[in-house]
Amino acid sequence: MLSRIAVRNTSQLARTNFTHVSARCMTASAVSQSDYQHLRTLGANHLNKGVGRITDGIMVKGEGSYVKYDDGRKYLDFTCGIGVTNLGHANKRVSRAAAEQCMKLVHSQCSIAMHEPYLRLIQNILPVMPHKSLDSFFFWNSGSEAVEASLKMARTLTGRQNIICMQGAYHGRTYGAMAVTKSKTIYSQNTHPLMPGAFSIPFPYWHNMNLPPDTPVSKLTEQCLYQLDLLLAQQTHPKDTAAIIVEPVLGEGGYVAAPKEFLEGLRRVCDQHGMLLIVDEVQSGYGRTGTMFAIEESGVRPDMMIIAKGLGNGFPISGVISRRELTDKLAPGTVGGTYAGNAVSCAAAAEVLEVFKEDKILENVAVRSKQLFKHLESLQQDPTLAPYILDIRGRGLMIGIEFASRTGIAPTSTQHEVGIVADAPEKMASRVAKKCIEKGMLILTTSVYEVVRFIPPLNVKEDDMKKGCKIFEEAVREVVREG
């Protein structure tokens, strides 16, 4: 076991150096408004237009639940960089751990040698695994890369090619990850053919079956598992199928939690046919749903689990976690990458887990989740708003609110489609989100439906949650009044 006392003692010099470096950086960061204007012009002319943004201007500082822009604007951030800065922006303990590591070792390529932060991260993460069988770790850079690694490993270990994914799933924008991403066509538009061998089934979400929001979970689960059986009988034989990949809570698909019965059904089918169950916890993991990992609530055992986002609280790092009995079969060199498991990111990630434990983060998630749900449900009970609020769902601080649509997901949608309300405000979710931004809070939409998602910091304070709820309510009421 690695000694934290030894680590602290040997890093005393690094702390001193960090102080001097920070002072120099603060002096160097004094930028005039004319300089910012030049930078904005540079961005307008030279940034790749394939990147979309919800705000203009330059974000210059983040602290806790807030971010500041170059022109003085300050926002309450309920996006967390899409579920990344779970412990708040520039968390002092996490940033200090990274800064100290910068003064010791920045890069140690994984094919050359192990490094101490990588091993300390394993030491800290082992006790929080959702199942004791998850004991083999490979750290990479991004969620998409971790997905790619899991698909490659599944094919290698089973000797089979095909992968089954979920309708509404999001797993990334690289080619293998795009093939199993089914949330929006924009992510793969004009890039086909994608990786072959990807098949999808419906996720138990009432929209997928065009059923009312109050449809029993048992019925949704039954229909989806039936479609899985049908897929294995009609399109991809079990002996040709390497794995099923699933998010325990759909992210880009609308913030929909998978029922326990559905996840149990997937596990049963995988066990029956020798397929692997890959659980993507990139967005739902690391306390976001109230437990360290969303899969914990079901008790279902993953064969592989993918993590990223909150793992490093902003420092780029992802991971594929599996069983040694599986990964011991891989030939050396099967996985790797130049920056895989970067030392600075690993140091930050190791400290993230210390903060979780010492600051009682999960306890705060439970309290703030109740506060947020209570406020959203009060809006749903308001007679003037109720006709336009279809669903409030989620777990912990991964919460979605779905509004009615005037036309459905496309101009050709019929009045028989679930969720269509003739007098509903057009594009309600995006309009609400835009008004929230105008009022001083960053918030995002998600899915092809009218869904706004809440992803506040897991250590958000009561007053900030109250402020965010007030801004959101004002935005909703204004959009409804405007029609």
Automatic annotation (TrEMBL):
Keywords: Aminotransferase, Pyridoxal phosphate, Transferase. Its cofactor is pyridoxal 5'-phosphate. PROSITE patterns: AA_TRANSFER_CLASS_3. GO terms for molecular function: identical protein binding; pyridoxal phosphate binding; transaminase activity. InterPro entries: Aminotrans_3, Aminotrans_3_PPA_site, Class-III_PLP-dep_AT, PyrdxlP-dep_Trfase, PyrdxlP-dep_Trfase_major, PyrdxlP-dep_Trfase_small. It comes from the Eukaryota. Belongs to the class-III pyridoxal-phosphate-dependent aminotransferase family. PANTHER family: ACETYLORNITHINE AMINOTRANSFERASE, MITOCHONDRIAL, AMINOTRANSFERASE CLASS III. This is Acetylornithine aminotransferase.
